[in-house]
Design brief:
The complex is a heterotrimer of chains A (about 220), B (about 180) and C (about 240). Chain B is mainly α. Helix content of chain B is about 65%, strand content about 0%. The chains are: A alpha+beta (about 220), B mainly alpha (about 180), C mainly alpha (about 240). Chains A and B meet through α2, α3, β3 and β4 of A and α1, α2, α3, α4 and α5 of B.
Amino acid sequence: MTDRRAFGADAHRYLDGEPFGELSVEERAAADRLANLARAFADRLEPVDAALDEAVMAAVRRRGAVPVGHGAWHWVVSSHRVPVRPVWVAALAAAAVLVLWLAPRRPELSRSGAQRVAAAAAPDTVFVRFELVAPEARSVAVAGSFNGWRTDALPMVRGAAGIWSITVPLPIGEHRYEFVVDQTRWVADPTAHSQVDDGFGGRNSVIVVGPKGLVRS
Amino acid sequence: MEPSDGTIVRRVLDGDVEQYRFLVERYREQFGRYALAVVRDRDAAQDAMQEAFIRAFDALATCRNPDRFGAWFFRILANQCRNVVGRRHEAVDLEAVDPAGGERADAAVDRAELAATLETALAQLTPEQREAFVMKHVEGRSYEEMAELLGVGTDALKMRVYRARDMLRELLGGMP
Amino acid sequence: MNGRGIRWVVLAALMAAPGSLAAQAGSIEARLTARGLPAQLAQEVQRIASDAVAQGVPADPLADKAIEGWAKHVSSERIVSAVRQFAGRMAEAGAAVRAAGLEHPSGNVIAAAAEAMGGGLQPDQIQSVVRAAGTAEEASPALSVATSLTAQGLGVKQAVTIVVEAMQHRRPMSQLLDLPSVARSMHDQGMSPGEIGNRLLPPHGDDAGGPPGDKHDRPPGVPPGPDHPAGPLRP
């Protein structure tokens, strides 16, 4: 029959290898016992077989190069030339965008079709920040059309007040996604532009990313 | 002097795929014990690690800070390990665990039996507690290192480690 | 030539182009099994994809949809049903896109058109957007913006008008792509969808005219007031 017994603060400091106050004989014995168990366990761990390296490289070679574009991954990121865009832009900027939008266009500024296409294609990727308030969650990730719906490839980091976040480079255009909480629950992003039917009876959050990133208030 | 993570990542992204091997060797050595300790099944741990390296390669273009590839890769590995453990759904029979009662000195008990005891009890912890305990007591990392790798604050990590210790003490019992 | 003959001609024409829709179809099963889908499900999706390609529908979005369903732990039956539905919608959307003059539309445009259709745009509205865009590169984002604005409450007609007129007035695509964000920002500031729609409609009449605000029927000499689009700014 075991008692519900927790270690006191001093025992924890002792186990952390930090200066501690007073420890009773029993506490110290229990702490030492746990530490010994851990050591025995650690000692028995043999290193992972180096043959793993070749197995990984064989798979990597089959791919030829780091996958870009086509299908699930749409990364157009070059390793040394990622354009950095402002991620959070204040209401000021939203209004500024609107002014530009409404400013009348002078006929002589009109462009040829080819020039318009070139202008549209120029800035390829933009950093977009995803955030979710989830203080009770143990893990949060974002999964969507930009990463092949992989639920473990974009884990978010927990910050103050239980706000999880991640900043991801995305190609401009439309993206569909959801958050994955505790690896099991799919959760919408209330700050997304819209929610759409995902075809499975659920919803996906949708954002449309322009070259300035997501203009938010 | 060996090239830095950032250098290797950039070379791989530029097309020199063979360079990836340096990262694989480096982090197999650094994180192998973690995978084995958390997953507890040798084959499953190696599979998890292999899968993690391949996923990391596939996602390499999304590694925001190539100089910190290790921490980025660690998260992928930790998630893979969790997937593997989650799938196995072991029913742990604690009756089979002999907590080596209070009277016998640890030195007299077979080390392997001790290790097995802890292994079984670790299965009862939550993933965060298990991972934190392994990083602290099996890998011997400082809280600052753990914070770097997990992206979690040291206060939260201490809580996880303390709860893990308390749980293990309760599970293993046998002491006054 | 009967229907089946035409289908074979289309298929042959598609297979001629490398990286074509047909080339996509061949690798679907492999992609799916690599992501963990069971063989039977992968084969079923492959069958649907191959049929779809023969009708000019891109296969990759179908594979993406199956992968999405699998990631969400949806049942195989439901995945198959969703993929079929999406294929059907893309077939219809593809017809609209081609009718608007894009003879060999990319998978992206067709998928965007299908999403637009799902979002409430009618085939003739899709045609309007595609015609105004002129190229596949511009049609795809234009359709996405129209779909988003519609979903954000602006109403289909208004959303389509905003996008079509913008392109007719030679707005750069970068500005169009900002619209959903701007609309969301305005919504967060408390504006109704109707107000937002009105503000996003480009000014009518003489484009070489004066500063914004002059188009709102204000008597001459009266300065722009609080409903001026550039302000007031809320904190």
